[in-house]
Backbone:
């Protein structure tokens, strides 16, 4: 009887281990695409970039505030689509502790400045010349927006163009 | 469920068909002429305990039928995955849903809708492979331990019934003369049999380790599967592409900012008929045109000094210069950089002259850096040019507005405003390659094209694979198992001395011819009768009956 019990226990353990390995295999495989980007809930990688007015912005300095971190390019149509909405909502949420950091994916100053003038952007726009921030955030598709809460955690990652309404909703989420 | 005590006194696990020690038949197959020697008649555990839910799962995976079914399923699925290209191999610009139907018709549509376009990472494929792994392991555990136990406990003296039912069996009647088995023993020893003796009975055995071959093989397979599994674990496997213009220095993606790479020069060498060294290739060159000799990137590798955050100015330390060629990657730590693609003559600057259209008189020239254009170009003496708009990769959108589709200067276009002393307000000119449009009316001046500068771009694959050695060792162990199981045979010869006869029986797991030869050599020129192959006898006798009938 004792032997039987031992056998049952050992079989259970082996099956559990193998089952766990299988679940792990499935899990890692299905989070693989997400591994390529950041995971929700992880700390937002810190960075420092200088905006077009020469002011340096360090992400960690925005602790206590929500950061609407947007990656964009002038050649990307959906990026251009959402910019005016971001500008509108920026005015509303600025005093409520939500900051926009718009990171351009390494284009020329000329292109970015032209774009800012065209859309009358007043939030900080910065160029990631070395593509390092892009690498750190594993940016693949543009536009992509990282919602960083007041603790510096990425609470959501949104790819694709945003409507004004959804921008407002997302800003509410990161409002401190 | 009781253990089975054999008449010889040996206690066998429940379910044993042949006593481990003496070979007494414990099952019901006493009727059969030959006994099934698979797994030594040991009790495969799965077959015997069917009580709990856990046991049922265990038995499912232990079954060879289930294992074979899984193999067949995996095989068929893998084959289907090769019929049409997988999603990762279709052009990245295409939408998969449309692409498959467009390219392959309804077959493609079906293929896509059934999820075969992403077959190898689909949940059901992974579950099949995972279950196959589980089946391999459990089936091995379930067979190895009883077999091991059985072979370890085997006795020298075997029951007559056991010997009689071996495929190779023979009896020599002793008529008063006594036979000395010493000669046979020493011959078997010379054939590298291990001899055990008990009361004058003999057991000669060799190559038992060949029985472990399949299990070693399975261990290798499982290690291989684990290696494949680890690929999707972050940090174990990196596969990225880095595009670098000549003169450009960038962070190597996937290294977390640890390494930077600078492209000093990219060279594309072709075989040249005029060159003496390449003369032997002249026929091939005539046939196909240009043949590339080398793709080479001269690069410099830098390492970051100290901790910095992305975007911050980094202190770089030069590690080495290297020439990356195809199959000659730059290796650093676990990273390897392979030459994978290139782009020749990407535009880098474009030069223009400000010119009076009629007189063709030039009023200065300017050079636009296509990756960093300026807003204003002052030509002096009251002449200047404003760059109003710049489209590095120009096309007209649906509304007929100029736009750029990327930031790469593949097809640059400009809108200039030319200020001159006689036209201080400025004239607007739209300039693209082989295009000069005056959208706001006739101009006096134009921007005359004055040459370009180009640079080459190299593309490198950044690869890190920490699973490779696991895959390798899995593969090697797999092969060791195959060799162990196929190039050695487990042969046993039992010789039992009775009062008036000597029984000889033999068994091998494969290559019956080999054991017969061994026995023949051992018995040569003794008065012992050579045992016969009962299976062959049976065959020939049934054949005979058929003929007679």
Residues:
């Amino acid at each position: 009887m004792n032997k039987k019990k031992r056998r049952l226990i050992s079989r259970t353990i082996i099956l559990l281990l193998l089952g766990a390995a299988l679940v792990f295999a499935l899990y890692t495989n299905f989070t693989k695409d997400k591994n390529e980007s950041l995971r929700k809930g992880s700390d937002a990688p810190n960075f420092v970039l200088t905006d077009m007015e020469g002011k340096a912005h360090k992400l960690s300095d925005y602790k206590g505030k929500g950061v609407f971190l947007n990656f964009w390019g002038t050649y990307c149509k959906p990026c251009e689509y959402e910019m005016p909405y971001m500008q509108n909502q920026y005015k509303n949420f600025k005093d409520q502790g939500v900051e926009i950091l718009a990171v351009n994916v390494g284009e020329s100053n000329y292109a970015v400045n032209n774009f800012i003038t065209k859309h009358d952007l007043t939030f900080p726009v910065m160029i990631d010349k070395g593509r390092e921030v892009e690498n750190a955030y594993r940016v693949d598709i543009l536009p992509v927006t990282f919602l960083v809460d007041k603790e510096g955690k990425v609470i959501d990652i949104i790819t694709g163009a945003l409507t004004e309404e959804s921008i407002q909703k997302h800003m509410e989420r990161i409002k401190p | 469920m009781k253990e089975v005590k054999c008449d010889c006194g040996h206690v066998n696990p429940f379910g044993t068909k042949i006593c481990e020690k003496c070979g007494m038949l414990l099952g019901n197959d006493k009727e059969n002429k030959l006994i099934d020697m698979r797994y030594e008649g040991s009790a495969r555990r799965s077959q015997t305990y069917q009580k709990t839910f856990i046991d049922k799962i265990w038995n499912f995976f232990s079954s060879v039928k289930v294992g074979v079914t899984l193999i067949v399923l995996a095989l068929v699925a893998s084959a289907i995955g090769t019929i049409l290209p997988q999603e990762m191999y279709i052009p990245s610009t295409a939408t998969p849903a449309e692409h498959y139907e467009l390219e392959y018709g309804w077959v493609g549509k079906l293929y896509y809708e059934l999820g075969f376009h992403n077959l190898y990472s689909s949940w059901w494929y992974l579950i099949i492979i995972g279950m196959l792994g589980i089946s391999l392991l459990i089936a091995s555990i379930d067979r190895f331990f009883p077999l091991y136990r059985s072979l370890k406990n085997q006795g020298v003296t075997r029951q007559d019934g056991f010997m009689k039912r071996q495929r190779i069996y023979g009896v020599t009647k002793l008529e008063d003369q006594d036979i000395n088995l010493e000669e046979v023993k020493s011959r078997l020893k010379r054939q590298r049999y291990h001899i055990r003796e008990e009361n004058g009975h003999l057991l000669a055995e060799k190559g038992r380790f060949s029985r472990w071959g399949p299990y070693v093989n399975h261990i290798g397979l499982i290690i291989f599967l684990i290696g494949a599994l680890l690929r999707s674990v972050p940090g174990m496997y990196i596969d990225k592409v880095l595009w670098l213009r000549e003169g450009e220095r960038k962070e190597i993606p996937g290294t977390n900012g640890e390494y930077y790479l600078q492209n000093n020069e990219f060279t594309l060498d072709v075989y040249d008929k005029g060159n003496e060294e390449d003369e032997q290739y002249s026929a091939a060159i005539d046939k196909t045109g240009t043949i590339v000799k080398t793709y080479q990137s001269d690069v410099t590798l830098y390492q970051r000094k100290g901790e910095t955050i992305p975007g911050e100015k980094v202190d770089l330390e030069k590690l080495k210069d290297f020439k990356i060629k195809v199959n000659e990657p730059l290796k650093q730590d676990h990273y390897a950089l392979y030459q994978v693609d290139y782009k020749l003559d990407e535009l880098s600057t474009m030069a223009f002259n400000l010119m009076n259209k009629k007189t063709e008189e030039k009023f200065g020239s300017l050079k636009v850096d296509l990756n960093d254009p300026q807003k204003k170009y002052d030509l002096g003496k009251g002449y200047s040019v404003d760059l109003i708009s710049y489209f590095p990769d120009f096309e007209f959108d649906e509304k007929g507005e100029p736009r750029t589709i990327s930031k790469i200067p593949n097809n640059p276009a400009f809108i200039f405003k030319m200020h001159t002393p006689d036209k201080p307000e400025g004239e607007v000119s739209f300039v693209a390659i082989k295009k000069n449009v005056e959208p706001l009316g006739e101009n006096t001046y134009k921007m005359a094209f004055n040459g370009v500068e180009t640079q080459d771009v190299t593309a490198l694959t950044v690869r890190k694979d920490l699973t490779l050695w696991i895959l390798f060792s899995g593969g090697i162990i797999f092969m060791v198992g195959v060799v162990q199981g196929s190039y050695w045979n487990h042969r046993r010869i039992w010789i039992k001395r009775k009062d008036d006869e000597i029984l000889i029986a033999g068994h091998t797991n494969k290559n019956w011819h080999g054991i017969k030869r061994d026995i023949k050599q051992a018995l040569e020129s003794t008065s012992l009768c050579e045992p016969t192959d009962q299976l062959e006898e049976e065959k020939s006798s049934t054949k005979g009956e058929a003929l007679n009938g």
Summary: The radius of gyration of chain B is 40 Å. Residues 123-153 of chain B form the longest helix (31 residues). Chain B touches chain A through 49 residues (CB under 8 Å).
